[in-house]
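Tutorial, part two.
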Amino acid sequence: MNVHESDEAICARGGWAPDFKTRPSAPPIYQTTAFDMHGLEQLDSVAAGVEPGYIYTRDGNPNHEAFARDVARLEGAEAGVVCASGMGAMTATLLAHVRSGDHVVAARVLYGRTVQLLNHLKSAFGVDVTFVDANHPAEFARALTPQTKLAIVETISNPLMEVADLPAIVSALGSVPLLVDSTFATPCLLRPIEQGAKLVFHSASKYLNGHGDVMLGVVVGPRDIIRKIKGLASLYGVNSNPLECWLASRGLRTLPLRMERVSQTAAHIAEFLTRQPAVARVYYPGLANHPSHPQARQYLSHGFGGMLAFELHGGRPAVATFFRELAEQIPFSPTLADARSTLSYPTGTSHKFMTADERRSYGIGDGLVRLSIGLEAPADLERELSAALAKLSGTSGS
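Running the prediction step on this input gives:
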């Protein structure tokens, strides 16, 4: 201790333990705005990538890198970048690919905010956008123009659970890069890069974290493209914070176990729902009558996921009653992939930005409910759903 240090100096410069060489058994949180330099030479060396290190957390942080690298490894990608939200990651990715006059081809059934963002780029910045039916890959080829810079699909679509034939879509696109939103599938069920996709996107708030307490997005792909996306993420300030990256890394440790469990439970609940009088239709790719079942069997070799949707007889009033009956067990929560099961209403949440006619044309009715399966025992979920559905059908629970 320097005997000449003032109280002010001790307090202002404190908080540090003496240097040590034992490695912590869990990764630490680098909750810092910036990283100190020994001098100008080190600044130049780190900035040039000659010496490993970090300068400013908006540009990079060990927690950012740890999470992005792990997701990239899981997806079989060269590199990744993590952003403050899924929409932040999608925005940075789009800005890295298109400018005024360019063209994007997108599946017509996407997360509603992705559609809203594409329409905003079209109206505000002159980016042309064509929406096509991803169930017919040839439509991608017909939509291409010399200005097409990017195509976007989902592995399992939100909310109708349609499974994309990624190799056929990649073939139809030719040299146009494909960005795949694989939030519902995760790399445990499908790795789009192995099917020919160029970039893979995740709303990491969902399954990758898995505990409903993080807001993050991540994109992985070729190193040169990721470098450009990362630079724009920093420029536009959509970078993530260290604590949330640390939490996501912690959640990622149990991803394979969670995906196996929710896939098994969802398959059980989907079959159960097909037998309920109050349910008009069930959307789950593991069901033999789902339009995408052949693709699901071909590409989702490790399970069909934990997401399903179903249409209730009676439309919105039936949904309101159903949600009210389940409020204390399976809450209405406009997100997904928590450790607990949750319900959502696409018409009023993820796809509320569409017109009623657009939703109807996509098959999103006023009675459609999306169910995100959590880690509860299947018997508990079946009992709770049965009791709530009985209130709609006027029958006793089955």
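The domain at 40-252 is CATH 3.40.640.10 (Aspartate Aminotransferase; domain 2). In part three we will examine how such features are distributed along the chain.
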